[in-house]
Design a protein that fits this description.
Blueprint: H1 5-12, H2 19-24, E1 28-33, E2 45-49, E3 52-58, E4 64-68, E5 82-84, E6 87-89, E7 96-97, E8 103-105, H3 115-118, E9 123-124, E10 126-129, E11 132-136, E12 159-166, H4 170-178, H5 197-205, E13 218-224, E14 227-234, E15 243-252, E16 256-259, E17 262-270, E18 273-281, H6 289-295, H7 322-327, H8 341-349, H9 368-387, E19 405-410
Antiparallel strand pairs: 1-11, 2-3, 3-4, 4-9, 5-6, 6-7, 7-8, 10-11, 12-18, 13-14, 14-15, 15-16, 15-19, 16-17, 17-18
The chain binds FE2/S2 (inorganic) cluster (FES) and fe (ii) ion (FE2).
FE2/S2 (inorganic) cluster is lined by residues 71, 73-76, 90, 92-95.
Length: 431
Amino acid sequence: MTLTIEENELICRVGRGTPMGELMRRYWVPACLSEELLEPDCDPIRLRVLGENLIAFRDTEGRAGVMQERCPHRGASLFFGRNEEGGIRCLYHGWKVAVDGTVLDTPCEPVESMIKHHVRANAYPTYERGDVVWAYFGPADEQPPPPDYWWMSLDSNQLAVGKIDYACNYLQGVEGTTDSAHNNALHSGFEYMHWTEEQVQELLGRGYPLVHMRRDQKHEIVDTPYGFRYGVIRHDPSVPAGQHLVSMTPVILPWSVYLDYSPHMFVPADDEHTWLFDVRTRGGRPLDREKELAARGERVGIDLGPDHRKLRTLEMSYLQDRKVMRERQESWSYSGMPWGKPIQDMSVTESMGPVYDRLGEHLGVHDAMVVRMRECLLSAVRRFTETGETPATDSSIAWNQIRGGTAVVPVDTPWSAVEYPDTERAAVGVR
Ligand code: FES
Ligand SMILES: [Fe+2]
């Protein structure tokens, strides 16, 4: 499926007033990590989400607020304000605003002034769970119930949520994660470096996660009310005759791909920038948070700046190491980038340009999931434009049951009948 320029624009542009931008505003949006708002009355932070300039802060009672950066008085940035005593006070004339947008104080006005009762800051409803502060940017009467995904109920020692910026449109990130075929090349590439089986095994012994896509693997896609689900079907020596192994991945509109243990959410900062909210779990077992974030190149102060933007960028070619690529001795020799899979992913997705036009592509069989993603977004945005409906408020969807995983399935049973794949069998760190 080749997209026209108009179709590509339709699914890539996310600003307020655009069809896709409005569709996205019908969902709860990951706005920032809880840890970015460390404690009550913490320093406010600047955010850019869906093309809007915002601030987030936590008030004296610990409630998280997300609102337009501009002060409702005359537009100064509230980022510079004082956060104390139940709200944020603009430096310019001292107007004070609560997390819900109520104007609490207008000290430069006469005492009898009623202006604070007539003005509200553009604050958005928030909801905090799963180490994420979510915000809702859509019309009040369309607000869906708060998000409830399976990983959000994990204890904090079972969960590590990373956040890292992509300097490209969200769809390039989503397509890259939906496309499982690239694992053979980008994240491993052993075949292309002519590694022997012994070399690969040695690497496996060192704990390198390797799942090899074989050319005889099959993909199947089934539509679901929230998007679609795809299965990668393979025969495995460990599986009894008459059965096969199926890795199942739900793709949840508009930006989530639920790989095995690790949901990925590509939230647009604007058309040309994206935040990856990178959820790491071990399927409910405790994990080492620092180790998880290190493996993904998502440690603040080491891999990322304090604002979660990566330190190794496209402009510096991600510090790609050509010597290691030539010598072929390291697990990351294929790409020459040891900084975690997100950076390897970005080296390809960001290099396509800020908003890839998708002209002149030559799609192959393994691009089927990418094609389905585009079709799905197109039909969702067209349906939304015509009817105002989105899956966001579909009460038939059991959101907290949607999860990826791997299952052993009899060959004569449709894998899509398996609703809750066994995450214990999931191939860890595949993508
Ligand atoms: S601009 Fe904020 S108080 Fe005047
Ligand atoms: Fe990848």
